């Protein structure tokens, strides 16, 4: 299954910084005006880093519907690459709206993946003049893409590291809150399970409020770690309350009913959850 990066296009600082330095080298090596990286979204390709030697052709933030992009030609190609001497004459690109908008001719692009081989987007170059790209040029751009794959992983790892801790907040004896933030991958799932169960046992927790408002949903799947943790906590005699159900979680629940099947209390916010168990927040 393809990894869907939850990071916004502005949240790849390392990739943007390193790519700008690499673009200058690529542009000289391939004798082109423009080099850029796109990130694939659900329905569109968005330029997240770009270099224009002379005139600006592709600005950062430029977004095009996936079906109308050169990127689709690249990603769908068995060779993970696509090049043409002249975009305006090539049978595969001349009718695309983006071709008439950009008025570019020479083009070469390769699929940009992460270290696991998941499609992240594309690495492309283009020029207003006709260009004939050799297999050596294709291999060169793919090699640059391999370098950038490590930078993508660095940004993704740094993003996840910010959420690796499990901050359980004690309210009073027997009552605590677990605010969930970010992406829950396999490693975090193990940490959450171990930490929460040990905490509940050691602190003799009677009521645990799990706040999901900061949870990032990936691939439309609700992390099953919470289903497992809730079942385990209930076996330990802990009363569970859920709050912060986002539209994404609610949409997933419509077809799965995993949360409702557990027969636990769901509140609209933290204050309502605490009031349900008899703890009232009072302003000073």
From TrEMBL:
Any Pfam family from its record, for instance, is GAF_2
Tell me where on the tree of life, at the top rank, the source sits: Bacteria
Q: Matching Gene3D superfamilies, A to Z? A: 3.30.450.40, STAS domain (3.30.750.24)
PROSITE patterns for this protein = STAS (PS50801)
Domain STAS per the UniProt entry, residue ranges: 165-277
Q: What InterPro entries does the record tag this protein with?
A: Bact_StressResp_Reg (IPR051932), GAF (IPR003018), GAF-like_dom_sf (IPR029016), STAS_dom (IPR002645), STAS_dom_sf (IPR036513)
The family database entries (SUPFAM superfamilies) matched by this protein are listed as:
GAF domain-like (SSF55781), SpoIIaa-like (SSF52091)
- Note the PANTHER family from the entry: BLUE-LIGHT PHOTORECEPTOR, RSBT ANTAGONIST PROTEIN RSBS-RELATED
Q: How is this protein named in the record? A: STAS domain-containing protein
Q: From which lineage does this chain's organism come? A: Bacteria, Bacillati, Bacillota, Bacilli, Bacillales
